Amino acid sequence: MRISRPATLTLRTVALVYLGVLVALPIGLILLRTFEDGFGAFWEQVTTPAAISALSLSLVIVAIVVPLNVVFGVATALALVRGRFRGRGVVQAIVDLPFAVSPIVVGASLILLWGAEGWFGFVEDTGFKVIFALPGMVLATIFVTLPFVVREVEPVLHEIGEEQEQAAATLGASRWQTFWRVTLPAIRWGLTYGVVLTVARALGEFGAVIMVSAGVAGESQTLTLLVHSRYIDDHNEFGAYAASTTLMFLAIVTLLLMTVLDRKRHSA
Amino acid sequence: MRERHQMRTPRAYFTPVVALAAAALIGCGGSSDSAGGDDETATSGDGARLSLVAYAVPKVGFDKVIPAFQKTPEGAGVTFAQSYGASGDQSRKVESGLGADVVNFSVEPDVTRLVKKGVVDEDWNGDANEKGLAFGSTVVIVVRKGNEKGIKTWDDLLKPGIEVVTPNPFSSGSAKWNLLAPFAEKSRGGKDPEAGLAFVEKLVKEHVKVQPKSGREATETFLQGTGDVLLSYENEALFLAEQGEDVEHVTPPETFKIENPIAVLNNSKHPEVAKAFLAFNLSDAGQRLWAEAGFRPSKPELLKEFADKFPEPDKLWTIDDLGGWGEVDATYFDPDKGSIAKIYDDATG
Amino acid sequence: MLEAPATGTDVGSARRRAGLRAAGGVGPLGLGVATLWLSVIVLLPLAAISVKAFDDGLSGFVDAIDAPSARAALTVTVAVSAIVALVNVVMGTLIAWVLVRDDFPGKRIVNALIDLPFALPTIVASIVLLSLYGPSSPFDIQLNATRPALVIALLFVTLPFVVRAVQPVLLELDREIEEAAASLGASNLQIFRRIVLPTLAPAILSGAGLAFTRAIGEYGSVVLIGGGIPRETEVASQYIQKQIEVDRFVNAAAVSVALLLIAFAVLFVLRIVGHRTARREEQAR
Questions:
Q1: Contact indicator for B90, B118 with CB cutoff of 8 Å
Q2: What is the CATH number of the domain that holds C250?
Q3: Complex ipTM
Q4: What is the DSSP string of C36-74?
Q5: Structural domain boundaries of chain B?
Q6: pLDDT in tens, C90-120
Q7: How far is Cα B259 from Cα B230, in angstroms, rounded to an integer?
Q8: Residues of B in contact with C244 (CB under 8 A)
Q9: What residue of B is the nearest CA neighbor of A50?
Q10: Each residue of B175-233: pLDDT tens digit?
Q11: Strand ranges (DSSP E) for chain C?
Q12: Which residues of A touch B (CB under 8 A)?
């Protein structure tokens, strides 16, 4: 499809103006407010003990959530696309449900399920704290990020079809070999996006996590909770913006890193 | 939690993200671990680690009171895990199992919830604990610098075109106090509820537009330019002045006494220390620190000491004048039958 | 892999052929793992809240949803989310197209920008939007506490969905067929409608579904800019939050379940439509 120069330019302009107004403007404002007092002031805000602890907690959660989502997300996507079973449509809709759940409800249902008086309260009785501890925050984050990998991988799986996988199988490749050599390389773009979205969302999740976190500064606050507590409890607007900028920075770094690594692997 | 900070992910090669995260962990592991290490030694030593669960606003006060307590003989070596948030949310967290030693909420019903649950003793607000009141405040009218609209009394809020920002009373404790203040004045302390409700109705229907969720969100909405008037805690207004925001506040001639409760949980792991902390808050030394942070001390003689900071209104109505929280909540704020609840329903219907 | 020749017809026939074999490329193990994962993470918590919603029996559930303010909140939420999903379909596809097919300096920066709304805590989004479009707006645009403000806030948080769903498919899309069609005299519009769109359709619908579901559940970003006026700009999440605040947990759970059912129904229909279109187009060719 060859598009004329004016049409291309029009499309480009429309896209850029839309993104400019909707995203660049608000983000520019955050950056402006973060750095209007210089980099030193920003650095001071993001290197307080509470900020460092929040940063590492956020990264720990991401480090736990991403591998789980990749493994189970790809497995689920494969089952949905390649599998033939009754009720597939229902399962597909279930995958998207986590988005429809208000973060408040996510938190509340996790408490109903895993809390001391919940269905799985016996876990808590053994002394392993789920709610108001790290496992609860991880569960909440997995809940809200679950659809990403599945949803990003699925359309690509559809698109590439099964021909090559079947060809590989005919040539005597085992299921694993087929997956590693044929399927995985094909879905890597979708997977990459899925992971980036997961990371971004995991870093940014707030409503569900605040409900299942003990919220103790320097212990159980993620970066997002830090932003909130600086903003709401401390009236420290600047500190909140500084922490937000850190969050955005992490998301961008993830994206760039994945793009660069992917290109390297590809060109190697 | 602390152990997990040191956790290494074996499959660090799995995705670059994990590698990034792991690298960052190792990088900043030092400081967070050493901070944690200090806490650990403190806990294993003489001192206890008290868990304080409180609503958001008094954090500025606890920032002064806690270091002072740690300097007293009872408080030496005691460390604190502090959790702040919306009053109702915090109360519900404790109800559903968040471990706490001391709680401090915006309104009494949030403590009552824990009494019902059985984790706070029935006599928490007895005379032994100074009625369980950590500190208080009053409802004030915050206006933009210069007060060009000349707002001084509750009646001024009903001038044509004045837009009032006050949070939603169904989600915010501070909103209840805000509405009770003019209500008490107009109803002469609940004797003439119709007059009070008539005022509230006119206020809500004609002058309140946005309904932020919490007191602090209302402040933010106001600071971002919405409305002519913000109803808020006096301590919030003092705090805004200290922050150099372009606002000032007016204490109306008649207003309402805000009382914020504090209590010790009966399942506290360190009941003695928790009680000592509570006592310190209520002591003269503790109350002076609260006063410095902008909160009205509970004791009248201490309040006089800070008369410059806390002007005495002509009349300060209290929740007891209206029959106590149990009755006020049932009569006015019950979502089905409460008369103020009805006004809110109609106003937007 | 990008150069892999996987034409639409091949996919179709391959898929039909695969349909003849039982579980396709996935054994029962994969299916079991997927089911278990979904159950523990998603279904059980949702089951817990659904049971709670029926604590007062079916009539209690119906009453909770039928309350005027609850109905109003649900209506506002669904209407606004539908608009948001539609805008996303058009703009998201367009942006994905520009990002994949067009080339201009700074494209990678623009590409990186797309995911940022996710990483921002919603409270920050709310504050920033309020300062941009509130009473002290530098552009003199006052959207504070109106429905358009809700739409803008939701467009902001849902931006990545359609873009990121369509992008990989566009990347994998084989351009040879397009070239072939063009050489046979098909116009751009024809090529787009007959070849590109059908292939993109499942991805677009899936992205729109995600955007819609995220929009109906969204809370933080609309709180300040939306104003939370009941029956006007109060969204379902705010209503749920308020119900929890007044200790009406059953009401909160009931509205959540209603929200879930709506989302589920919409997603289910979108999926079926998506598959039908894709299949019909494949067969037509």
A1: no
A2: 1.10.3720.10
A3: 0.81
A4: HHHIIIIIHHHHHHHHHHTTTHHHHHHHHHHSHHHHHHH
A5: 47-135+259-305, 137-258+311-347
A6: 999 999 999 998 889 988 888 888 888 877 8
A7: 20
A8: 88, 92
A9: B32
A10: 899 999 999 999 999 899 999 999 999 999 999 988 887 888 888 889 888 889 999 99
A11: none
A12: 49, 52-53, 55-57, 59-60, 62-64, 66-67, 70, 111, 115-117, 124, 131-134, 195, 199, 210-211, 214-220, 229, 231-235, 253-254, 257-258, 261
Residue B219 and residue B109: Cα distance in Å, rounded? Answer: 23
Structure tokens, A63 = 């480090």
Contact A232 B217 (CB under 8 A): yes
Q: Do A159 and C173 touch (CB under 8 A)?
A: yes
For domain B47-135+259-305, which CATH number applies: 3.40.190.10, 3.40.50.740, 3.40.50.970, 3.40.50.2000? 3.40.190.10
Q: Which chains does B contact via 3+ CB–CB distances below 8 A?
A: A, C
Task: Classify residue C189: in a domain, yes or no.
Answer: yes
Mutate to test the interface with C, among B107, B116, B168, B206 (most CBs of C within 10 A): B168
Chain B closest-CA separation from residue C47 CA (Å): 19
Angle between the C236-245 and C249-284 helix axes, to the nearest 10 degrees?
Answer: 160
**Residue numbers in C near B211 (CB within 8 A):** 227-230, 234
* pTM, to two decimals: 0.82
Tell me how far apart the alpha carbons of residues B194 and B328 are, in angstroms, rounded to a whole number.
14
C188 burial type by CB count under 10 A (0-12 exposed, 13-18 middle, 19+ buried): middle
CA of A216, closest CA in chain C: separation in Å?
18
Please state, in angstroms and rounded to a whole number, the distance separating the CA atoms of residues B65 and B69.
Answer: 6
- How high is the mean pLDDT in each 10-residue block of chain A (268 residues)? 81 93 89 89 90 93 95 90 78 81 87 85 82 92 91 83 83 84 85 87 87 86 88 82 89 80 64
Q: Apex CA C165: angle with CA C161 and CA C167, to 5°?
A: 120
Examine residue C252 and state whether it is found in any structural domain, yes or no: yes
Nearest-Å Rg of the Cα atoms of chain B is 22
DSSP C195: I
Residue of A nearest to B240 (CA): A235
> What's the whole-number mean pLDDT along residues C246-262?
87
d(CA A201, CA A182): 29
| Domain-embedded: residue C38 | no
Return the structure tokens found at A123.
Answer: 């876990």
